[in-house]
């Protein structure tokens, strides 16, 4: 059997598979939380560091396994979901609003070891759309290992 390896397939083979659970929302609507979490997934994909499990694929697999995500915020739950999805790493977190300040907090959990391997926070004073367009990109960059993510503009 002959396998053809192109630079793209070699790069893909080296990427860590990561899945992002919908964040917990505090002081913002579930629709806003879903939009922000989707944007974070996209921004993690754009980093070209991770192979990101798509939301639709996650929902299909978890529905087939009859797994309920409601209240799934603990590291143990993230690990269980990651095992079902075949992900190496899981991202969980929260997005909160206090006055005009928004804060996003995220953690990456290694599915095999159950250990938190990265935490990142991003604070933004302004509007929710700024958190969508600026904050989620900055949070993704920080989760990708760059602590000097761009400040808000």
Automatic annotation (TrEMBL):
GO cellular component, one term: outer membrane-bounded periplasmic space
Signal peptide bounds: none
Name of the molecule in the record: FlgO domain-containing protein
Organism whose genome encodes this protein: marine sediment metagenome
């Amino acid at each position: 059997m002959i396998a053809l390896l192109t630079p793209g397939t070699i790069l893909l083979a080296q990427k860590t598979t990561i899945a992002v659970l919908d964040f917990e929302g505090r002081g913002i609507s579930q629709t806003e939380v879903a939009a922000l979490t989707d944007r974070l997934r996209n921004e993690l994909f754009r980093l070209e560091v991770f192979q990101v499990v798509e939301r639709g694929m996650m929902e299909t697999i978890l529905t087939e396994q009859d797994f309920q995500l409601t209240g799934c915020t603990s590291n143990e739950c993230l690990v269980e979901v990651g095992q079902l999805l075949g992900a190496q790493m899981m991202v969980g977190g929260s997005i909160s609003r206090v006055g005009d300040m928004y804060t996003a907090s995220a953690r990456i959990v290694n599915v095999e070891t159950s250990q938190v391997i990265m935490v990142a926070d991003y604070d933004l004073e302004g509007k929710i759309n700024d958190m969508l367009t600026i904050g989620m990109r900055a949070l993704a960059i920080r989760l990708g290992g760059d602590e000097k993510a761009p400040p808000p503009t």
